[in-house]
Amino acid sequence: MEMVVESARLVAEGRAHPNPSQRAQALRFLGIGLFLTSRPEGAETAFFELLRQRPGAKLDPTHTRPDVVAFFESVRARHSEEIRQAVRSRPPGKRLLLAFLPPAGQFQNGDRARGFTLAALEVVSLGVAIGTYVQLKSWVRSDLTVPPQHTDDARALKVINNVAVGVFVATLAVGIIDGLANFSRGDDEPPLAWLTPNGFGFRF
Questions:
Q1: Tell me: the pLDDT tens digits for 141-187?
Q2: Closest Cα to residue 21, out of 103, 105, 101, 123?
Q3: Is residue 26 within 8 Å of residue 12, measured between CB atoms?
Q4: Cα Rg, the chain, nearest whole Å
Q5: pLDDT tens for residues 36-66?
Q6: Residue 50 CA to its chain's centroid (Å)
Q7: Is the omega angle on the peptide bond into residue 103 within 30 degrees of 0, that is, cis?
């Protein structure tokens, strides 16, 4: 549990350069860890900061000890007015539509490196797809055939065009899935909050 606390503290304090969802998850784990190691004041601070960021956050009672859940809800009740003030003063929340428009969804979620990577792949693959298509069309004669001198080049460009289109479509699909998986409004539960990296539920 001490390892959980120390690891979560690195992320919660921003030293690991987390995105907002990762920091919220770290505050959750930090609060749980501090409470279970008999440091309720620190746990209250972590939970309060989590609730300021995500007022609708909850601890899943099927994966978290009842006493931890009860303490978390007591923090929510004691600081209800401060939490409401934080909601009123924060900027507008995220838009689900942007999750379907990679890399906009990645930038919205705070995943800038992933956003730039997806943007580069989209630009390059789309550019290659358009360029090869235009070149192929320029070789096609009025009878819809390709002159003999361009036959081999046309076959090669057709392969490149198909690969470029495939990469572009795959990048869009991955970007949409990633954008939805990491999407979380300011007051929502972080996605898969109760899962370990291996996908198995755990109970504190």
A1: 877 788 888 888 999 999 999 999 999 999 999 999 998 888 765 44
A2: 105
A3: yes
A4: 25
A5: 999 999 999 999 999 998 888 999 899 899 9
A6: 18
A7: yes
Residues 125, 130, 135, 139, Cα dihedral to 10°: 120
Give me 130's structure tokens.
């358009």
Nearest of 46, 57, 51, 52 to residue 188 by alpha carbon: 57
**Residue 72 structure tokens:** 């978390």
Identify residue 34 by its one-letter amino acid code: L
In this predicted structure, what is the pLDDT of residue 199? 36
Cβ count near 166 (within 10 Å) = 12
Q: Quick check: pTM over 0.90?
A: no
Instruction: State CA 107 to chain mean position distance.
Output: 9
Q: CA 46 to CA 28: how far, in whole Å?
A: 7
Higher pLDDT, 16 or 113: 113
d(CA 203, CA 111): 28
Q: How far apart are CA 156 and CA 152, in angstroms?
A: 6
Count other Cβ atoms within 10 Å, centred on residue 114: 21
Question: Hey, is 126 helix, strand or coil?
Answer: helix
**What is the separation, in whole angstroms, between the first and last Cα of the chain?**
9
- Supply the pLDDT for residue 35: 96
d(CA 190, CA 22): 8
